[in-house]
Amino acid sequence: MRTKEVLAAGVAIALLAAAALSVRRYKPSESVPAQSSLPVMPEFRRTQVVPDRQAGKPAAIVPPQPEMPPRKTEIPPPSARASAKSGAAETAVEKPRRAESSAVGAAKLKMLESIIDSGNDNDSRLDSAFNNLSPATKSLFRREYSQTPPEDLNGRGTLVYALGGKNLASKEDWAFLRGVVREQPCRSLGNCAQDGPHDSIHPAEEFALSYPAMVALRQAENVLADHNAGRPMENEAFAVGQAMDLIRAAKESKSPMVAERAAELERMGGNTAMAGGSAAGGSSGSPSAGASGSAGGPASEAAEKAAGGGQGGTPPSPGEPVISRRGGGGQAGTKDTHPSPEEPAVSNASAEELGLPIDSDVPSDMRKRTLAALAIVAQFKGQDATPGYKEKLNLNQLDGKAIVANLKGHGLKKIGMARDCGPGAMACVEDGNPTQIGLTPSLKQLPTTTLAMVLLHEGNHAGADRPRYLHDFCPASAGSNLAGGPFCDFKEDGSYGFATRVMGNVAKFCETCTGKVTGDARDIQREEFRRLYGDAKKKVGADLSSK
After folding, report:
1. What is the pTM of this model?
2. How far is CA 429 from CA 171, 196, 459, in A?
């Protein structure tokens, strides 16, 4: 009997020891509701190591977790969620998003390159497809600018235009523009590192050589125009401060045209702008009371009137015509999503509708550029025009096809290659061929809208009464490189007056033009206007300021 009791006691002790050992080996980290489908909990699991970027440490130790049954959504343990971006989260979310953004940016750059290659400044996508770009896409565009040859002036200027307008949201965006205006100016159309053979540089060539910087400076002009007219702006104080910084940088440009234009902008808009935004030069601030408080007051009403009824533009310098900034930047805002469908790069049919044939001796690359410029002229369309335009051209509204028909009525018949336009000339009408616009190879380097202006300017020289439209000799006040030479006009009907009047009306009234076309038209008419003197300057200036 005693033996049986001893044996039973031994068995009981063994069972208690086994139970204690089992409890020590298995300690679940959290209670789990009993379910028949739950797997058996393991006795051992390897320690998991994941990045811990939030804490700035190379790694964090995550305690072993019990294995759970498969679920539709994997929920990370609390310790893993404490890290802002774990390796697993980055794989699932960040990498696909970056890949999509990169693809969209590359597609947008490809689209812009096709527009640049076509030379079609009037492609509507310039004012819709490149607004509100992501920082990554803007960086891609800036890199493309840095890799574009300096002689590709139209390409570089178009990239600057795409990066302006609604894309100026950060200090980095404005810093890029300041870098553009600080660049060494191009010295000749064929080779930016060498001077060209000039008797006197033409306004169109001077503008082309400084084109990227002029487009960059135009972004500051647009901001000041909106600010001075009291139009609503996002982050107004910041934008005005950055615009003034850009203007000050442009005043130091080695390009006389850029430096002079920056000084004009500082005189025209600096006092008003600095009163509202001088403290915002480096902040990312919201609009301040000082920056927007003038809306509706006498100063803003005067600026609105000077800007052409609310369409934009800063007040002119004395004697300069007022040109409105209609469409001077990107239009309706769009998010950085997939690009819009392709549209025809440029329609040769629209150029051919002008009935202005191009001789077969014009090389293919120049023919392409000339057709692109003529297509833009054919697309000039507006419901109104200035009184002088209506009187001189016998037209009631802006109409590019009618403008060319007017020139053909004076005797212009065709476009071909010039034999000898003189040193450094881009185009001319030669005495031996007075009904033809003669082209030179340097023309293909011009921005397309500038090339369109040159064709109109030279077309005004053509015809049987050509001597009537020859240029006059410049006065001493024109400067040493112009004084005494046949590079100016004292007559209103000369080619400088004609081109100034036409491009001024394009800037004011064109309803079918992109902001790039109207902005270029406004800038180039300003340079043509500088070659007018006496009554011609007064009459053309008064005409363009009349509406």
Report:
1. 0.71
2. 48, 21, 8
